Amino acid sequence: MKWGFRWYGQGDSIPLENVGQIPGINGIVGTLLDKLPGDIWEVDEIQELKDSVEAGNLELLGIESVAIHDAIKAGTADRDHYIDNYIQTIKNLSKCGVHLICYSFKPIFGWAKTNLFYENEDGSFSLVYDQSVVDNMQPSEMYTLIHSQSKGFRLPGWEKERLDKFNRLVETYEGVTEEVLFENLSYFLQKIIPICEEMDVKMAIHPDDPPWEIFGFPRITKNLADLKRILSIVDSPYNGITLCTGSLGADPANDLVEIIHEVGERINFVHFRNVGFMGERKFKETAHLSTEGSLDMYALMQALVDVGFDGVIRPDHGRTIWGEVAMPGYGLYDRAMGITYMQGLHEAITKAKK
Ligand SMILES: [Mn+2]
Fold first, then answer.
1. Which residue is catalytic, options 96, 118, 130, 206?
2. How far does residue 206's CA lie from ligand 1's centre (Å)?
3. Which domains does the chain show, CATH number per domain?
């Protein structure tokens, strides 16, 4: 496995040097934070990011996310223009030696939480999702809530530019059912996967977070059946998934070990994190250890080893601890402990296997 860490570039609260000091780390999964969905990522911009990462003795292991323009997701008349731009970005990433793209195909809300700073008993802070809060909320209020708690950080998917266009976005998605959204994903993948094969760039779709419908917008990456259906659109290793344990695992009906075994060879990227169930459709993001949340992280690492996963894996969201001021979920300390725990699990499992 390649051990990665999400890093937001020069705008990140964490200096790259600190990331490089995490034991066993291979590289970062990066982004160009200023890019809006639909923009072409130019070679010189990607190269600049890559050079800065390599100057810190780290590898640029992949990109998350190259966001998909709403025209592609909603299937509007101008989608081909944005697909052409996406293809150009794939080619440019390949030219720079970047071979992994994480993306998601969700209308309007990429991820959602109802509290970004829930205080735990020990004084640490977690992100929390509570469906009962969402049930009493208008979709646009979600923007207000997230912004009021972002502490000034730019949160991907919650850009002010998107909020300004919110009502028009909702109109864009009128009539887009789950079936239509799936058809639009099929159209997109059929166009790009042949290019990905040629350019050796693996795609990894991220599951819904939370993995159920919110505000009535369609969701098509919620469970094993959804993932299998997506993988069947184009039967290629370049059409793969991001196994995000905390996203899929927020629904207790999702058996993550089964999912890993069923789609194992198509897992192109792993987000490893735990969640703690607090009630019906209510959960918090905990520290990574099995003892801290509801998921059996040992069983998940065991399953990844069993299916021979050898791609990029990274710790996903951590708590905010030790007084750190960081983007919610993306502080240094809890994620650094998370990756060390993950490496401990991996070493024990692989050595026991021999
Ligand atoms: Mn994730």
1. 206
2. 7
3. 2-353 (3.20.20.150)
